[in-house]
Every structure is written in structure tokens, then in C-alpha cells.
Design a protein that fits this description.
Layout lengths: L5 H25 L3 H24 L2 E4 L5 E4 L6 E3 L2 H9 L6 E2 L22 E2 L1 E2 L2 E2 L1 H7 L3 E4 L5 H10 L2 E3 L7 H11 L3 H21 L8 E7 L2 E4 L5 H8 L31 E5 L6 H9 L3 H4 L2 H4 L3 E3 L2 H4 L5 H15 L4
Helix pairs in contact: 6-7, 7-13
Length: 342
């Protein structure tokens, strides 16, 4: 039997050790780079944090009626509204804007809203459709609401000042507009409750009308040039339709505004069982023109006049672009004038 010499044994052990050393180096080379993985993990965590931060900064995102995407980083605290309907809607939602424009044809905020004490904290920023950009910049709004007929160039300027949303178009009824804006401001429950209260009031007044349920109701805005009746899609027409009250045939024409001023020869078109008539302002040429014509025989011959069923109303309420508060006020006027007194 061959015996392994000391030299052979030593060489064998050296070779054995070398093999294990190479194997060890090979295994080390195959291990993951812990430092690299740690860096990648940190980058991934940072990316997730950035995404979370961006998500937290985006309070709400929505498209206005023009399709323009509006992003709000937080619940708006300084809102500016550029129409009477927008102002009405915000007040109904329990929000007081920091700025607004004057009412249609009026020097200030619509008269029917005068009862709201918080109006004294709202700054006028110009006339309807003509807001002062300098005033808007000073107010530092975080959201501007503008509804109705919009000038594209003006809209572009407004969006340079603050996020700006077009809230309604002229053919929208107030309930549709209210629900839309409430959704943007996360006030859906408030809007829903308001509409429910309104519908209950409609049903109550409808029952109180008794024989007057079948009456025709004429609504007229008196302008300096003469009277014009409100068309079928005007704000007040929607409220009267909710009460199921009929309009005179001529006043069932489609449209969100009013007819052209009528001549004396066409004055019969404003007649009905009831005549609700008003002017935008409390004095001036329109009031003078109305008072003059009301003394004429042609006006005195109207059925509503002869039956003493003419109601003088606030034209800024009945013949303009109203919102939810205006709708409630119109219901009250109808109840006060048309329902039998106990």
C-alpha cells in the first residue's frame, strides 16, 4: 500500500484550502449588494412619500361646465363669485365669499339678499360682467366662480389670478346649478337638504292655493322702454312650474330671459289672472315709465288690474337670475299674495 508522504499531505491540504477559498469568493460575488438595495429602497420610499404628498395636496379635482379641469389644493377659504346666482348659491350652502359683483342693473348686491348680515363682509369687485382685475388680485382668492354668459378672453385673465370655474349656463335651473357647485365644494348634503325643504314648501303652498291652482300667472319686468314678460326658461318660470301654475300663452316661449319691451298695442300680452310686476331698481326711469303707463286706460282695462290681482314685486328677485334663496323668496311672495287669508 502506498503511503502518503508528509509533503504530499501538505500539498493536498493546500489544494483543498485553495478550493474552499475560491468557492467562498464565488459565493460572496453572488450575494446582493446590500448598500445598493438599501439605496433603491430609500428611493422607492421617497417616491411613495412624494406621491402621497401630492395626493394630500389635491383636495379636489373637477371639470367645470366648459370642460376645463380645476384642481384645488385645499378647501377654498377665499371665494369670489361673479354673478348673483353664484352668490345666492354660496349663501345657501353656508359659505360667505370675500368678493362679488353687483346685481343685474343694480348698484350693489341684489336687494332680496339684504337680510343676510354677512353681506357687509363681502367686497364689491365691479359690475356684473365687468369685474375689476385689480380688486380680484387684492382679494387673493383661492377659487373664483363665474356663471352665465362668459367672455373667453376674460375667463383666461381670471384663471391667471386664481382657479376659476364656470358654474352654470343661462339655461340651467337653480337646482341643477346648486347641486353642481355643492359637489365641487363637498357640500352635497347641504344642497340635498335645501332642495328637500324647497320641495316640501312647494307642496304646502300648492295645497294652500285652493281654487287659484288653475290661475294663469303673468310675470313682467318693467324697463324704461316698456314692459317685457319673462320667458319659459327664466328663473321665476321654473319656480312657478314647480307650483304647477300656468303662464299666459304668449309667455310660454322658450328662452331664459324676457321679451322685448312691448308697445301699448301689445300690452294685452302681459295680462293674466295674476300679474306680478317689478323693476330692477327702486327708482329711476324704469319706475317712472311703469307708473306713467299704469295710469293709462289700456293698462286699467287688464283683467288682473280690474280684479285687483296685481302684485308689485322686487324685480331683482322675480325678473333676474336667481338661486335657491331667491326661489324660496318667490314661494313666499306667491303664498302671501295668492293663498286665501285665514
Amino acid at each position: 500500500m502506498h503511503r502518503v508522504s508528509f509533503q504530499e499531505s501538505t500539498a493536498f491540504r493546500s489544494l483543498y484550502t485553495l478550493c474552499w477559498l475560491c468557492l467562498g469568493l464565488l459565493l460572496v460575488g453572488c450575494q446582493p449588494d446590500e448598500q445598493s438595495n438599501s439605496g433603491e429602497a430609500q428611493q422607492s420610499a421617497l417616491h411613495s412619500t412624494e406621491q402621497l404628498t401630492r395626493h394630500e395636496q389635491e383636495w379636489h379635482r373637477f371639470n367645470d361646465i366648459t370642460g376645463f379641469e380645476v384642481t384645488l389644493s385645499q378647501a377654498p377659504q377665499r371665494l369670489v363669485v361673479l354673478s348673483e346666482m353664484d352668490l345666492d348659491m354660496l349663501l345657501a350652502l353656508g359659505i360667505t365669499p370675500v368678493g362679488t359683483t353687483a346685481g343685474r342693473g343694480q348698484p350693489g348686491i341684489p336687494r332680496y339678499l339684504a337680510q343676510y348680515q354677512q353681506l357687509q363682509d363681502i367686497r364689491l369687485v365691479g359690475r356684473l360682467g365687468q369685474p375689476s382685475l385689480d380688486e380680484l388680485v387684492q382679494l387673493q382668492p383661492d377659487l373664483i366662480l363665474v356663471g352665465g354668459v362668459i367672455n373667453p378672453q376674460q375667463l383666461k385673465q381670471l384663471r391667471k389670478i386664481a382657479p376659476t370655474a364656470v358654474s352654470y349656463q343661462s339655461t340651467d335651473d337653480w337646482q341643477t346649478a346648486l347641486q353642481r357647485v355643492a359637489g365641487w365644494l363637498k357640500k352635497d348634503a347641504t344642497a340635498t337638504q335645501f332642495i328637500q325643504d324647497y320641495q316640501q314648501q312647494v307642496q304646502s303652498i300648492r295645497q294652500q292655493l285652493g281654487d287659484q291652482q288653475q290661475a294663469t300667472v303673468s310675470v313682467v319686468r318693467w324697463n324704461p322702454q316698456g314692459p317685457g314678460y319673462m320667458l319659459q326658461d327664466a328663473f321665476v318660470s321654473h319656480v312657478l312650474a314647480d307650483l304647477q301654475l300656468q303662464r299666459p300663452t304668449a309667455q310660454r316661449q322658450p328662452g331664459p330671459g324676457h321679451s322685448p319691451p312691448l308697445s301699448l298695442e301689445a300690452l294685452s300680452l302681459i295680462d293674466g289672472d295674476w300679474l306680478f310686476v317689478g323693476t330692477l331698481t327702486v327708482s329711476g326711469k324704469a319706475v317712472d315709465a311703469m307708473q306713467t303707463m299704469q295710469q293709462m286706460p289700456v293698462y286699467q282695462s287688464l283683467k288682473a288690474v280690474q280684479n285687483k290681482q296685481v302684485v308689485n314685486v322686487d324685480g331683482s328677485l322675480w325678473t333676474s337670475v336667481g338661486g335657491p334663496l331667491a326661489a324660496m323668496a318667490v314661494l313666499k311672495d306667491v303664498a302671501d299674495s295668492m293663498t286665501p287669508k285665514s
